Amino acid sequence: MEKVVVSIVLSVLLGLVLLLLGLFLGFSVFGGREKSSPFECGFDPVGSSRVPFSLRFFLLAVIFVVFDVEIVLLFPIVLGVGGCWLWVNSYLVLFVFLGILLVGVVHEWREGSLEWGE
Predict the structure, then answer these.
(1) CA distance 97 to 88
(2) pLDDT per residue over 67-114, tens digit each?
(3) Where are the transmembrane segments (predicted)?
(4) Is 19 within a domain?
């Protein structure tokens, strides 16, 4: 019990030291109009910053994030298949999960969200 308390106290102290070090090193006394503006290259901004973006690109980015998370969820199962420690129920859950993902990909494909060019 005593070792647990010591490790918790050391972890909290290390976190506080790193936080204070980051605040101290991140503090800047040099500032001005150029440093506070979003354009530091010396040119004045041209045009409006409210340019409309492509909704198709946004949907494609969301699809990418969904399938990126899916890879993270499948990674432990891939490691388990190599070691043969998965049970029959685990395989059933794996195939249901992959089936749901496959239905999602087919839906996005038929909807046209996966098309890059028009």
Answers:
(1) 14
(2) 777 777 777 776 666 656 666 667 777 788 889 888 988 888 888 777
(3) 6-30, 57-79, 85-106
(4) no
